[in-house]
Structure formats: C-alpha cells, structure tokens
C-alpha cells in the first residue's frame, strides 16, 4: 500500500482544519500527571491519554479526519485499508460515525481481540496471507471491486494531519514543553507531531521512541534514506510497520531524533506506568516512557510531553489465560 | 484487633463531618461511564473511581478521617494498625499528611509490592507470624510500647464514616440511583455506604458483592449472626477479612443483601473492565461488576452505582514476571 501519488505534506493549517473536522466525533482526551513518575524520571511528564480515545488509540483521529474529508460522492463508496491493529479498528469506527462502508484486510495470525473490535465496529473483514505483498494485493482487489477509498495507516496526508491534533491538544493543555516523545512505527503520529510543533512550539525538540527490534526509523534517519528491509521483532505490536517515505521526509526536515528501546525496558516501563497511574496502556505506548527513563540526563528538569498512543492490550498474550 | 469498646454507630452527620475533614487531603475521584459495559449489563453503570484515590484505594478516606479526628495530644503519639494491604498503605499516607508516626504490623507472606508501598509512605513495619492472633498480639504490643492510637481497618466508627464519603460523592455526582453495589470484606465500605444511602437516598438498594471463597457476610446475613469461622480462599486479597460485628449490625439494619461471586467470574469481569475502560482495577473491585453481570435481570434497566474500591493489582501474581 504505497502512499497516494498525490501526497502533499500537510501544512499547519491542515492540522487546524483536522482539529475542527474531528471535534464532533473524537474525544479531547485528558493530560495526566503522575507525581511519583516525575520523581522517578527527574523531569515533569505530561501524558496525553490517547488510550482513552475512541477505539482505544490516537489512530481514531487520523482515520476520522480521512473519513470526514471525503466528498459525499467519494464517501458513498466507503473506505478500505489493511491493518490488523488499531488503525483498522479506528477506521471502522470512523466510517461508522459517517454511516459508510469500511473494508479491512487482515492477515492470517492477527490478534483475535483486535479483529473482534474491528468487526464489532461494523467493518467487513477480508482475510489474506501474511506479508506486505499479499496485504497490498488484497487491499487493491477490494478497492477495485468496491470503489472504496484507500486510507493508508500513516503515509496519508489526511491521516497525518489528524494524528497531529493529539500534539496540538497536548501543547494547548500542557503549556510550554521542552521535549515531546512519541512512539514511532509508520510515522503518522511522528510526522503529525512534527507539523504541530512547527506551528505552535518550534523550540520543542521531537524524539521518536522506537523498539530496538523494529528500529527502521533510527536506521533511516542515521543513513539519510529509508531503510525498509528490516524484519520487525518486538512486543510492540503497534510499531512493527516500516517508516513511510513521506513520514520520513517530514521527520528528517524537523530534525527529529530516534531513541531505541529494548522490549524488556518497554515492558518494565509499562508495568511501572500501570502501577502508578492505574491506566492500562499498551506496550507501544510505554516505549515512550521507557525512552525517557533510559535517557534521564537528556531530559533532566525539563517539561516533557508523551503521547500514550493506545490502550488495546492483548492481555492473553501478556498475562496468559489465567488473568 | 477487636473494635474499640466505645464503638458508636456513625450517624449521617458524622459522614458529612468526615467529608469536610478529608476534603483537603483526599481526591474527589471521578465517576466513570463505559457505554459498552452498559450495553453488556443491560443497565446504566456509574463507577466511582476509587482506584484513582490516593494510595490507590478508597481506604484512604477512612484512614484520613481517623487520623485527622485525633486530638493533637493523641495524634502526637501516632497511629498503629495491622494490615498487609490497602488499609496499611492508606493509614501510612494519612499519617504522613499529618506528620505523625504510623506503625503497621504485617504478617509473614504479605504481598511485597504492598509492603513496599506502606514503607514508601514512611510507616514503620513490624513483622509478625501469620494468623489473626499473632497479628493482634503484635499490634497490641506496639500500641502499649508507643502509645499509638489503634485504627482498625473497618470496625471503627471514624473509618466507617470516612469510607461513606465515597458513596456520598457518587450520589452527588451520579444522581438518583436504583442500586449501589460495593465489595465487602470487613464491611467498612459497606457499612459506610449504608449510612450514606440512609441520609441521601433511602430508596436505593444496597448490595454487597462478596467472593464465594470468603462469603462470611452472606452467611452472617443469612444466619442472623456473625459467622467468623470461615477460612477465606479467594484471589480478592482485599476481601479476605471477616465481617466486623458493628459492620454487620449496620448492614443488617439497612437490609443490605449479599451477592456471592466465584473468582473465575470476578477475574473475567476484571479483564472485561480493563479492556473496555483502560482502567486498572484490582480483583476486589471487579467483584462488584461481576455481581451485576451475574444478576442481570435484577438490575435490568436500572441506574446502578458501583464503587471501584482500588487499583493495587499484584501484577506479578496475576500475570507472572513476564509482564
């Protein structure tokens, strides 16, 4: 699923438009403070609680902006994507808010509770073999047959502008920030955050927290070109995608820096956050806190915004059936 | 640790006084709604989020009221209790808010994270053998040596009046309720809720959700007298205490009804609540939701208040070290 050929980098005005577009549908999630974690990290942490977003992840913002940006005659043909995770559920729910069809191509082996969520929001599931080629082919076949509009999970200007609204709200509620740390997979949230920062707070440095087992963004930034041949191996199921080409371009231009984190550190940070905040965030969210804890000197005494990307935890995988 | 001989059943005025007393120290926790759980339960559920209370449980309310009710010369001698769980941590933090000493007698085999929390709040830990006799003896020894004031976890009028403020706030924020469901162990929360309901909303029925493996309250209500010889066997570590004598008297007079729940149903309800709300509540909280789900016809179409008693989950025990 390559980005649409007409991809144009969103401007800050597109972010503001996205904020207005999704406001009737998305939650303005709270910004959480956890005093004991501030003490632990040696800085002031402001957590944007996107695990409390509709469908349980920030992905609803981008999906919602994409769905509601369609002209009525386009919208009537529905939307299609391939995603076994939060983007699929988010697009399904966004389509439901507009009463249009949603097709989601899901690969064999996808996590059962996430598929159940996608189906519960009313989407039509299309199974395919695992692997990006099979997924793209199945997605294209559905698109041709139905005329549905492709909504890419991250290499899509409407999606990026939508994801940017999380950072916009965090900056609005949290005040001046020295740094912002967001998890990075395909780079929709990262690119959106870069655009929001450029518009509101150019001095705020942007860090991308990335699993060491899926560190294609770190490699791409280091090499100066997109590294797309890594095979992801991480517990962070939301961060296995390869950085999108337009996303990488936006992040490079913004001077974003990647911080890689081992899964062990991510799971320890997740458990710490669960215990201290009583908020159930998924590993893909905890990677950002783990990055801060792993680089304490860099953030010492600063005001640091963190986007808690989602709360769709696969409890059976993490805790076993005994939970 | 028998109730103090001067126990006098708290009146509704004592609940109002407790609310004023603890207001500078305790959180007024939010009332949460989870639409998909309403659909699942067939009724409107209003969750009082005491897992977000200070020290992670409603217990802080009663402990705080007890600590701040002491005359200055009493307070100077500190407080003492025996508890390996939420009451110990709550009393430790409450004592810290007043700057007085807190002694907590903890039995061998107590859960390590809960002990760490008690110590982190500044309490002095006193180890003893397991078993109620050893605990009471150790507690009495500390009391004699230090002159500290005994604060019983539930058979204490100040504690009961403090716990009642959770229900008071829920009734204030949640409006008219047909039923209130609270977990029951020693009966501090239950008795407090009964007094709050009598003062604010006498028509609201009170249900006590109790683990089937620690159903001494159900047995006591059925028999008309206190049944104190059951050996608790439940995953709900906050609900293993035997109902207190004054607590039982208050609950009998209020016409409260016990609903017993198997641990399997409690753990399923806990996992469901985690997934739907992204809020990490402990098994002792989930027992109340499980009771409602198990008795759908009884609550059909009603407005039902549930006190989420705490969020101090022993993740290692529930999920294993891999989490």
Structure, explained:
The structure is a homodimer of 323-residue chains. Chain A has two domains: 201 residues, Rossmann fold (3-Layer(aba) Sandwich), CATH 3.40.50.1100; 91 residues, Rossmann fold (3-Layer(aba) Sandwich), CATH 3.40.50.1100. In chain A, the strands form two sheets. In chain A, strands 1-2-10-7-8-9 form a six-stranded mixed sheet, with helices on both faces. The termini of chain A are far apart. The first copy, chain A, is α/β, with parallel strands linked by helices. Chain A contains 15 helices and ten strands. Chain A is globular. In chain A, 48% of the residues lie in helices and 15% in strands. Chains A and B meet through helix 12 and helix 15 of A and helix 12 and helix 15 of B. Chains A, B: It holds the Pfam family PALP. Chains A, B: GO terms for molecular function: ATP binding; L-serine ammonia-lyase activity; magnesium ion binding; pyridoxal phosphate binding; serine racemase activity; threonine racemase activity. Chains A, B: It comes from Luteimonas salinisoli. Chains A, B: Its cofactor is pyridoxal 5'-phosphate. Chains A, B: One of its GO terms (biological process) is D-serine biosynthetic process.
